[in-house]
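ZP: hey, is the heme C complex queued? I don't see it on the tracker
AM: it wasn't, my bad. submitting now with these inputs:
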Amino acid sequence: MKKALIAAAFALFLSSIWMAGCKKDTIDPRTWEPVSFSVPYGWPQPVYTFTNNPLTSDGFTLGRKLFYDVRLSRDSTISCGSCHQQFAAFAHLDHDVSHGIYGLLGTRNSPGMFNLAWHPSFFWDGGVNHLESQPINPLQSHVEMDMTLPEVVARVAADNDYRARFKKAFGDETVNTQRIFRAMSLFMAAMVSDNSRYDKHEKYLPGGTFSDAEERGLKLFRQHCASCHKEPLFSDFSFRNNGLAPKATVNDSGRAHITRSPDDLYKFKVPSLRNVALTRPYMHDGRFMSMESAVEHYRTGIIHSSTTDPQLQSNVNISDQDKSDIVSFLHTLTDSTFITNKLFAEPVN
Ligand code: HEC
Ligand code: HEC
């Protein structure tokens, strides 16, 4: 009898913890997933703070469904996830520039997606400065998904399952663009990648031992690269010209496309190098197929122009061995738990 009472009390205690974590009327054990967001130790505060868009399991799973839904493109063939693949840290593996509907080509390489909550701006030219307005571009782009926003809303609102999910996430069935973008933002902002071998190395955790080459590579990286590819996010999110020769066919002016200032010609957002081994090809136009050729650029390929970064006025003085050690180090930035985390994978239903 006493045992049964203790067991009952314990069960009550457990369920009170469970309830405390979620809103009573939204718990559905079939869809509830343990979504969370926390700032990894030693990282700066994120830019996106969920203040007006609280992170809930229902909002996150709705955003995930939208992200992977091909019906958000005109001919129902392309989802956000088509160009942002989890196994490639949400870049588009082996595609130099984006391939959208009807096989149409864009002009830029699809970047990896993780730690987006820390980005002050989005796209290679920083053309969008809020995560919640970012999906407008791919949805409306004629070479990506080719939709209008009213068409997106109509398609989503026509689906019973979506309407039920909007009700759970936002309190009623209304489907509108703000809610769609907020749900997608919950999914995207919760994608934190902080569990690479480098992270374990920095925290002296098991599994964080570096080889001699990796240690040397880290030192060289800090000497020549980390001023722009700043730790711990491996980007300072500034716009820089790293000395790539502009391609005559496209002549992508980069940041100047947004600011119209000649001082910003050919400057692009410094990409994070976390998971870089997974996101080939490299640079804003995907011109380099391997990490070796991307690093080689800094050694032999820097082109001087009036906007070339002051730190890269000439080729970086590194030996063959140094280059190979830097590449070894870059491999330690791969976070395999992130790319296999089921929370971020395409849902089964
Ligand atoms: C056809 C391929 C394609 C599709 C579909 C696509 N993207 Fe992208 N995505 C890209 C490319 C290419 C870029 C870089 C564009 C640029 O910088 O101008 C990008 C950039 C981004 C960025 C900015 C990342 C950064 O580091 O600045 C985010 C976030 C993003 N996409 C999310 C989405 C979402 C959400 C969807 C669905 C609504 C989507 N993408 C659909 C190819 C695609
Ligand atoms: C002056 C700032 C700066 C320095 C220093 C710098 N980079 Fe970069 N890096 C950039 C910018 C900007 C880009 C994107 C350029 C573009 O696509 O037009 C970039 C792109 C890259 C890429 C491609 C990443 C991707 O996802 O496409 C790699 C790899 C890279 N850098 C490695 C290095 C290494 C290794 C060093 C040191 C030898 C280094 N960088 C030094 C600014 C810098």
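AM: back. The two ends are 44 Å apart (CA to CA).
ZP: great, adding it to the tracker
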